[in-house]
Amino acid sequence: MASASFYKFSLGFLLLIIFLSSFSLSASSDVSLSSTAYLPKLQAEKLIRELNLYPKDDINTPDHEPSFVGDKKIVEKRLIFPDELGVSGPSAQDLGHHAGMFYLFFESRSSKDDPVVIWLTGGPGCSSELALFYENGPFQITKNLSLVWNDYGWDRASNLLYVDQPIGTGFSYTSDESDIRHDEEGVSNDLYDFLQAFFKEHPQFVKNDFYITGESYAGHYIPAFAARVHQGNKAKEGIQINLKGFAIGNGLTNPEIQYRAYPDYSLDRGLIKNTDYDSITKLIPACEQGIKTCGTDGGNACVSSYIVCNQIFNRILGVAGNINYYDIRKKCVGNLCYDFSNMETFLNKKSVRDALGVGDIDFVSCSSKIYNAMLRDWMRNLEVGIPALLEDGIRVLVYAGEEDLICNWLGNSRWVHAMEWSGQKQFEASATVPFIVDSAQAGFMKSHGPLTFLKVQEAGHMVPMDQPKAALQMLRSWMQGKLTITETLYEVSPN
């Protein structure tokens, strides 16, 4: 019933015209919030604190729906930021920014014929405004809460679409908790229905190439969404979407392989010692068995496997101390690994809320309730659907900052190499070559056919934030089909 659910939102929620915030998920009736889900809730709240985010509510479920006008499937308004926000350079109106239901859309600064790129933030349950203002969006927030242009915003190479999902974070919401999602089927169906409505409203972009991108828990969202789009195209459902590829940044995609890599990465980076390694690796068999049981039984077995497997991660943190597990080069000071608090302050300014048309809807940056709702999904292996997409020529880029622990490059590299598809042996045998940006090495990559893996140097969990120039060049080169290995030293032009 995902389709009906989406259209209820789009018809009834005019005030959702904003940077949509994560499609939701809340604890379901058969997932207890006692012994099993209580620990994950604490972990979700710790994650939110470490981003220096303190949302008023843990999910948006207002008692009533705001009023709306019209009968369109998707309602949007042209977004013009007020003068006090200090945006310099081209005007927001000139660049065709649109705030809309469940999304914020930025037309390319280069050409409207550029690809349409959708970005999904993970969490699960964190709003995509985090990426918009701190990673690859057109603007960045200054200390005095004004906006400045981001020289390396991904809108320099694409028509950029931010969508928050699942329902309940940011400014998105539902008045019916039965609309909250708990698995990738629900999330991907909602996203597919949204995309159909978006392209119906903006038919001039239907012909453009389309790419799906995102990071972290979007390592789950992205493959499921790509498969749903591809399925819709094959079945000739609705508008045909010109899907060319998808990119996962520091994602969680195949938990069994990635959790097994935690001790190896940590030992290699000096976070733990050999004696710690020997002790921690003894936890791996129980984790692997838990993941297998999750795969067959689902439900609470998946919640249990989450708790069992995260003992591996927590034991490493217990030894490593107060590190920032998104970037091991840094320490967490006072429980705050990053300070993203300006985003919440900015989005709660009356002038900004008026510009977005959100009325009295509260902004929920990261939702612990959504985090809990997705627990049965966490340990699922989303790599299984990728080989069929590769076989049909859909390009796949997996990239990872080398300084990230929580979704580290080693675990990502291992699942990419272990994935069974027709080009697996050729990919394994391909050379690892430097990724060059402005004549300097920015990472290492290997590829074969439609599959590319890239390790980015001097970057943590959020590659576009830590290495913005390299991230923009990566995106542009990949979409142009230039992020491939040749017999000569790899280097591409940033243009």
CATH class: Alpha Beta
Instruction: State the helix count.
Output: 18
- CATH fold-type name: Rossmann fold
* CATH superfamily descriptor: Alpha/Beta hydrolase fold, catalytic domain
Percentage of residues in helical conformation: 25-40%
Q: What is the first-to-last residue Cα distance?
A: 44 Å
* Radius of gyration of CA atoms, rounded to a whole number: 21 Å
Number of domains: 1
**Low-pLDDT segments, ≥5 res:** 1-38, 62-72, 486-495
Shape: globular
Structural category: alpha/beta
Strand content: 5-15%
**The biggest beta sheet, please?**
12 strands, mixed
* CATH architecture descriptor: 3-Layer(aba) Sandwich
Q: Mean pLDDT, as a whole number?
A: 80
How many strand elements?
Answer: 14
Enzyme class: hydrolase
GO molecular function: serine-type carboxypeptidase activity
Protein name: Carboxypeptidase
Keywords: Carboxypeptidase, Disulfide bond, Glycoprotein, Hydrolase, Protease, Secreted, Signal
Protein described:
- This protein has helices at residues 2-12, 35-50, 129-136, 184-201, 218-234, 255-268, 274-280, 284-297, 300-320, 341-347, 350-356, 368-373, 375-378, 386-391, 409-418, 424-429, 463-466, 468-479, and strands at 17-18, 76-78, 97-101, 103-106, 116-120, 139-141, 147-149, 159-163, 210-216, 243-251, 395-401, 433-437, 440-448, 451-456.
- The strands form two sheets. Strands 1, 2, 3, 4, 5, 8, 9, 10, 11, 12, 13 and 14 form a twelve-stranded mixed beta sheet that branches. Strands 6-7 form a two-stranded antiparallel sheet.
- The protein starts with a helix and ends in a 16-residue tail after the last helix.
- It has one domain (2-255, 337-479): Rossmann fold (3-Layer(aba) Sandwich).
- The protein is globular, with a radius of gyration of 21 Å.
- It has 495 residues and is an alpha/beta fold.
- Keywords: Carboxypeptidase, Disulfide bond, Glycoprotein, Hydrolase, Protease, Secreted, Signal.
- Its EC number is 3.4.16.-.
